[in-house]
Write a structure and sequence with these properties.
Elements lengths: L8 H12 L5 H14 L4 H8 L3 H14 L18 H13 L2 H4 L10 H12 L6 H10 L16 H19 L4 E12 L25 E9 L4 E7 L4 H14 L4 E6 L3 H4 L1 H10 L2 E5 L9 H13 L8 H14 L14
Helix pairs in contact: 1-2, 2-4, 7-8, 10-12, 13-14
Length: 350
Amino acid sequence: MGKPPKLSHKQTRELQAIITTSDSKGPEVRRAQTILLIDQGTASRSLRAMTGFGRTRSFILRKRYLAEGIAAVQDHREGTPKELLTRKQREEIIETVKTKAPRDCMRGYDHEFWSAALLGRYIKDTYKVVYKSRTSYQLMFRKAEFSYHKPGRVSERRDEEEVRKWRRRAKKRVATAWNDPNTVVLVEDEMHLSNQTTVQKIWLPKGAYPEITVTRKRDSRSVYGFLDVKTGVEHAWKTRWQNMYITAEIIPNVRALYPGKKILLIWDQAGSHKGSEAQRAIKDDGNIETLYFPTAAPEENPQEHVWKAGRSATTHNEFIQDIDAGTDAFVKHLNTATFPYSLLGFSSLS
């Protein structure tokens, strides 16, 4: 009988991930270690001393892993918390998580949102119980019908009352333009596209670990984007930078797309928009009305969604070796796709 095949690089990484992941259970870690040690030719005596597995059991485990994959290593027992707490206590904890913030029930803590660490501290202080694994706390969050999210970011310059007032005023102006067939409603924004690789979560078979090339060299280009909210059509241009001079050069390009039409142009209050050269270009056009988004309210601008959709389709998980070629591909996608995003309740789908 020949020697069993060596583990592939992918299998080795898969087993190492089990060992280094904090959520892995003790038995899972020992199984993964056993298979790796066998692959390295570790003697049976040393194998038993390090993992507790004898020679026969170890080789059976390795054979199962080669046939079944990572399922042979994983613990398939029901993931319910060890009964350190009574049923009544668990129900009390779940009710607390659902109805109170940490600052409401933990002295010395001013946190508004729960985390596994905070829940662990609360259970320890209140019930004198500590779970070894974070999984137990995560299961309690699931029982409370919580899901795991990163909080959104809000600028300190944002004024909610000003945003509400802007919505009321702007909606009336947009409604008038929307009902005028001779008026185009454009929202605008600029962005930097960098050759720094951006990674986005993707669905893969269990055990698959893709690798994406990244570069240390940083280079970027700017993109000006104008979304026609009535049609969902995007107009984008690649530029070297973003400033009032380049904005002034872009304005005639926009006008060439809508000869004879009145343009309601809605954008933020950046210097590249309010600068004298940009304002001169708008004045020279003679048929562009500008409306400014409120300070620190990017979610009001549908163009922000265009950037995200375009990057997801073209640049995420991609190595951009040539920044100009990458930006050209990005701009081409924007200019050939449609984006039916809503502005104050108005969209091309309405």
